[in-house]
Design a protein that fits this description.
With 255 residues, this protein is mostly helical. The chain is built from nine helices and two strands. A hairpin with a 4-residue loop joins strand 1 and strand 2 (34-35).
């Protein structure tokens, strides 16, 4: 009896991945029930291979692309993130890139958004832990949390606060993030300041503080400031206290 063979009509190089449970790296031939090592692999009509659905595999590939792009960006800057480089780092063929992202800018934006969300979460959590605290003390807590978050992984600062010159996708995101932080600070600190405060002056002070802090972090991350994290946190807290004080009436006029 002549044994039938399966002739794949396209490359399945991208499926040559180690199985997450067995550690094997056999390549599956979708639609055939065979693997390229000749053994039969059970599959159902819903695209299940190796016990994982097509959707799960797509999600896994997307996460791998994001992680690869983040690693390259953190080490070499955003301009070094290329489709081919990311796919090579992730161990995927090019066609899988476009299953997850329409282009390189979309990938860069997705990586940046992840880091922004993590940073915003640090600020929100710090504020939540000081709901009834003194304004200056609460700001110091927020500053400490953000500096520590960025210190423990320098790639975070390089991604969200680094030099994005030349990117039409990243620079607007950076500006929007700084405005978001300013809005959070205004909303949180406003009720803790005198009711006669000038909202426009408060917002200008907040933008000044947030923008200045971002530039300090960017310079520190680039090696342009010979200071440690504690010095940055301390100095930023001092400046924050001065800005807060500028919106309070002189001590003798307070009620």
């Amino acid at each position: 009896m002549t044994r039938s063979t399966v002739e794949p009509t396209r490359s399945h190089e991208g499926d040559h991945l180690a199985h997450p449970l067995t550690g094997t790296a056999a390549t599956f031939v979708p639609g055939s029930g065979l693997r390229q090592d000749g053994r039969v692999h059970a599959q159902g009509p819903t695209g299940i291979y190796g016990g994982r659905s097509a959707e799960a595999r797509r999600s896994d590939r997307r996460l791998r692309l994001l992680a690869a792009a983040r690693n390259i960006w953190g080490a070499e800057g955003w301009a070094a993130v290329t489709m081919r480089g990311v796919c090579g780092r992730a161990g995927l063929v090019d066609r899988y890139f476009y299953q997850s992202f329409p282009d390189r800018d979309a990938l860069l934006g997705a990586v940046w958004d992840q880091e922004r969300d993590a940073l915003v979460a640090q600020v929100v959590d710090a504020f939540a832990g000081n709901a009834d605290g003194d304004l200056v003390g609460a700001l110091r807590t927020v500053i400490d949390a953000v500096v520590e978050h960025l210190r423990t992984d320098p790639a975070r600062a390089r991604i969200v606060l680094g030099d994005h010159t030349g990117s039409a996708v990243l620079e607007p995101r950076r500006r929007e993030m700084l405005r978001t932080f300013a809005d959070l600070l205004v909303d949180w600190s406003g009720p803790r300041l005198p009711p006669t405060i000038d909202p426009a002056r408060l917002r200008m002070s907040t933008l000044l503080g947030v923008g200045g802090f971002a530039e300090i972090i960017a310079a520190w991350n680039a090696g342009e400031l010979d200071v440690d994290a504690s010095q940055i946190a301390e100095h930023t807290a001092v400046v924050a206290a001065l800005l807060v004080g500028s919106h309070r009436p002189p001590l003798g006029l307070r009620q």
